[in-house]
Structure formats: structure tokens, C-alpha cells
Amino acid sequence: MLVLTLKNTTRFSGYHNYHHAFPFDYSASEFGALDNFNVSTALIDLFAAVGLAYDLKKPKVEAVLARVQKSGDASVKVEPASWYHTAADWLMGGFVSIFGIIILGIGLRIIVTGGLFNKA
After folding, report:
1. Rounded distance, CA 116 to CA 106, Å?
2. What share of the chain is helix, strand, coil (3-state, %, to 5)?
3. Cα distance between residue 90 and residue 84, in whole Å
4. Which residue among 20, 39, 64, 118 sits deepest, i.e. has the most Cβ atoms within 10 Å of its Cβ?
5. What is the CB neighbour count within 10 angstroms for residue 53?
6. pTM above threshold 0.85
């Protein structure tokens, strides 16, 4: 659960090393869009399904496992997500996203009007 919280509150920065290890992967991680809260990958997969995105590349599972063996953290065990972990991830990700949008809106309101409760 800590990984879910860290990933969602940092907006996927937890997958940053993966991006450097596999820069050709269109996704932000080795997980699919439905395995964790990854709206970008879900949208790209949707566009691919209707023909608007193509030539999507992912590394082979063997390449990812070899990289983990070479430079990964052996204490982290990655197993397929259960349905309730996936649901919790999407709920938490949605909550963090909505919370971020609200904070952004409040910040913009303060900047534009000079205060939170001032009339525009």
C-alpha cells in the first residue's frame, strides 16, 4: 500500500528509473493501465484500439526481469495485482488527481483575484 500511496502522490515519479531503463516503452511502467492508476497508458491503449495510435513498443518480460536482476531492489517482490489492489489503486489515484485539481483551482483563484474569498 505504501508503493501505491507514494506513486499516486508523486504522480508516477516512482517509475522514473523505469523510463530511463526502457525509454522506448510508451507506458510509464512495466504494469498495464488496468493494473495500476495510469491514465496516460489507458488513453494510449484506447487510441490504439481505434487506430489513432500505432507502433507501440514494450520491452519483453525477460528484458525487464534481467534488468531487475542486474540493478533492481531484490527486497521488492512484484506479483500480479489482485482486483482489490487494482481497485484501491484507481480509487486512490482518482482521489489524488481530483485533490490536485482542487488545490490548483484554489491557487489560481488566489493568484487571479488576490484572495480566496474576494469577488472577481
Report:
1. 7
2. 60, 0, 40
3. 10
4. 64
5. 14
6. no
